[in-house]
């Protein structure tokens, strides 16, 4: 599998269309089983936010390299996963492989067609289940355990995908897509777990552009906050307490819960950047790493960390400006 881009500009529109075409193809083959499946991951923002009707000055979503599908636990309990894997095989899908020939059971792709993979995820259902680990389902089929995934089945929306499949066939299907509230939780948890730029970008893009204001996002998020897996704040504090005093996405989520009706989108995003870190912040002082978006300790001064140099010397505003780089 090709390495994922580190910057939004490195995503190609052709690849994004391939992912959409793959999603449409899968929907035509799974049929009624699509009710037990929800689209999650990087394709969600472009499905929830009409890319053809973006306000002037708003960039299209960068897209994604793969298709992430969340599976309902009912598929396991009722044994319908056998039907799912049979239909996937009949459609030409098979487990992906590493360079040395080992099967990647949780990731499937169509052999010899396109370089789009389908990753399967499933909610935890046992006390021993750990996020990121594999749940063995069949000899050559597994799914990644994803905490919070069950929320995507509580907050989901029907979206119509129309166009051509990866085989060039014209089709139109309705698919279940993770809703904005559940997406915020899933992406916040993903960022806390692996800290990838793309997770932060996807989350920021959806909050910034979904609906008429951020209130539309919080209206979807609020009913989920009673679920333990949506309580991101306590996890984020535990994660960062030993390394930094800066809060992470959970702080913003909790502020939405406390006062969702009085915050404008601009105010919410400003609060996000104060707690989460500016998109242009280098990882370490004096080290230029433009592709990294990391947490920082908020201060009342400049949002940019000072560069290394003589002790007590402050970088000039021009110097800070010169170091600014953007992920999106």
Description:
The chain has 328 residues and is of the alpha+beta class. The protein folds into two domains: 171 residues, no CATH class; 109 residues, no CATH class. Strands 1, 2, 3, 4, 5, 6 and 7 form a seven-stranded mixed beta sheet that branches. Strands 8-9 form a two-stranded antiparallel ribbon. A hairpin with a 5-residue loop joins strand 8 and strand 9. The two termini are 24 Å apart.
How do the strands and helices of this protein lay out in sequence?
Layout: H1 13-30, E1 37-40, H2 44-48, E2 67-71, H3 74-77, H4 81-90, E3 93-97, E4 103-110, E5 117-122, E6 134-138, E7 141-145, H5 151-154, E8 156-164, E9 170-178, H6 180-194, H7 197-209, H8 214-221, H9 232-240, H10 249-258, H11 265-276, H12 317-322
Parallel strand pairs: 2-5, 5-7
Antiparallel strand pairs: 1-2, 3-4, 4-5, 6-7, 8-9
Q: Terminal Cα separation, in Å?
A: 24 Å
How would you sum up the global shape? globular
**Helix content class:** 25-40%
Low-confidence stretches: 233-263, 272-313, 315-328
Q: Round the Cα radius of gyration to an integer and report it.
A: 21 Å
User: Domains counted in the coordinates: how many?
Assistant: 2
The total count of strands amounts to 9
* Total helical segments: 12
> What would the average pLDDT be, to the nearest integer?
76
**Proportion of residues in β-strands:** 15-25%
